[in-house]
Amino acid sequence: MQKIKGLIRKSERGQAIIIIAFAMIGLVAIVGLVSDTGILLIEYGRLKRSVDAAAIAAAQEYSKPTAELTTASFTNAATNFLNFNQTGGVTSIDVHSCLSTDPQPPVLCNDDPITHPERNRKLVEVTASMQVNFSFLSVIGIRSTTITTNAIGEAATLDLVLVLDTSGSMAYETKVGGRVGNDPDVNPYPGDVDSENPKVCNTSLTHPCSPMDGVKKAALDFINNTMNFDYDRAAIVTLTGQATDGSAKRYPMIVKHLSSNYIDIRNTIFGLNVFTPHDCDPSLTTAADFNPDPGVCINYVDNTFTGVICQSFEALADGGIYNFAPCPSSNIGGALRLASSALSDPQGTTRRLDSYWVVILLMSGPANATDTYENYPSPTYSDGVPSSFPYGYCPPSTYYPSGGMPGQFYDYKFCTDGQASVRHAYNSTINFTYNGVTEYGISNYDPDDYARDWADKTATLLNGDGVTIYTIGIGKEILKKGAGYSDPSDAPMAQSLLKYIAECAGEGTYVCPNPMSNPKINHGQYFEAPKYSDLLDIFHAIGENIATKISQ
Description:
This protein is α/β, with parallel strands linked by helices. Helix content is about 30%, strand content about 20%. It has 10 helices and 13 strands. It has helices spanning about 1-60, 70-85, 200, 210-225, 260-270, 310-315, 330-345, 445-460, 495-505, 535-550; strands at about 90-95, 120-135, 145-155, 160-165, 235-240, 255-260, 295-300, 305-310, 355-365, 430-435, 435-445, 465-475, 525-530. Helix 7 (about 330-345) packs parallel to helix 8 (about 445-460) and helix 8 (about 445-460) packs parallel to helix 9.
C-alpha cells in the first residue's frame, strides 16, 4: 500500500512539472503578445508618419516644370524621404499621382479634366510596406509580419492674378538716342521724342514701350518657372484699357479671367499695351468744351509728339475751378477690386476655395485715381462710387494747395494729398476755401485712401487663408514725395502704399501690428525695382516665396 501511495505522489509531481512547463510557455506567449504588439504598434506609427511626410514631399514635385513631372520623379522623391527617415525594413513603395499618364491615380483625382480643368488637384498617393520582426512570439513560431499603410499628399493649386501698370508712365523709358539734357526729371522728353508716344511704341518691333516691354518679359519668365497650368490658373488685370485707336478708357480691366490655358495667358501678356488716349483737340479752350470727355489726350506741337497731357488743365482759359479727377489713370484701388472679383468669381462657377490665392501688383507710382460713377456706379460708397463723384474721388485741395490757382504744372500728384501717414474714411470732409469763398463738406477722401480700403477687402477674401499680395514698385517715382503737399518727414506716397498693401492690408490698423493679429491673412512682401532689369530677380524671389508657402 505504501508503495502504491509513493508511486501516486511521484506521478503527481511529474504532472505538475508538465503543467508548469505549459504554463511557462503560455506566460511567454502572453508576454510576447503584449511586448511584440507594442513593437508592432510603434513600428506602424513610425511607418505611418514617414509615409505621411513622404507623400507631402512627393507632392512638392508639382512645383517643377510640367516636362519634368513623371511617376518616376514622384517615386524617387517619396523613396528618398522614406529611406532618410526609416532605419530599414521597408520592403515595397508604391506611388501614384494625378498625372494623366499614371495608370492608377488616387480616387480623389479629377475624373473630368477636359470639361472641368479647374477641379484638377496636385495629389500623390504613397503606399509602403515593411517587415516587423518579433522577439518573444518567435518562441511559438510567429517570427515576423508585414505592415502596410498609405497616405495622400497634396500641394496647393495656385490661383494667381497679375495686376500690371499700363499707365502712360510705362513708356517713359522708350528712348532712341538718349534723353535731352542731363537731368531726366527736369527735361523728361527723349532725343527721339516720338518714341515715347504710346501710339508708336505699342506697335514698334524695334523700340517697344519701355519699361512695359521688360515687365512683360519678366512676367512671362515668372509664369514659365512658377506655374503648372495643368493645375494652376492665372488672370491678368491692367490698370487701363487696352485699345490703341484712341478709344481706350482709363479704367482698370480684367483682360484675362482665371485660365489654365498657358497659350492664352502668354499671348495676353505679349499683347499688353500702354494706355493710349485720344489726340488732343486744339479747338477746345474752356472748361465747358471738354465735357463729356475732359480727360487726358496725346498732345502734338507742329505735328511733333510732346507728351500726354490733361488738356482741360492746360487750357485754363476761363479761370474756372477745374476738376482734375478725369485725368490721372493710376487707379490702384480699382485694380485690386477687379483682382478680388477675378479670384472670388461672383457667379461661383469656377471658384476654388481650397486653392492658394495670390495677387502680384506691379506699379510705377502712387495711386492718383479711383473708380468712377461710370465704371462702378452705386448710390452709396459701400456698393460703389456715388453719382456725386462722376470722375471719382479727387479732393480739390490737392490741386489748389494754396487756396488760389492751381500749381504751375499738371502731374500725377493731383488728386492725392501727399500724406502717406494720413488716412481718411470715405465720408471724411473738409471746408475748402478758394479765392475767398469757402465751400463746406468737400470730400477729403483721395485715391490713396481708396487703394488702402480695397487692399483691406482683397487681403481678407475668405478662401481659408485669405489672399497673399506681393507688390513691386518700379522706377524712380516710387521714392518721390508729392511736391508741395507732403510732410518732409513723411514716407514717399507710392512706397508707403505698396508696403501697406503687401505687409499690412486687412489688419484693421494703419500701422502694421507686430505680431500680426488677423489669423486669416497670409501677408506677402514688398519689393523695389529701381530698374526694370531688377524684375527677373524679384519675380524669382516671389516664386520661391510662393513655393514655400504652398508647402507649409
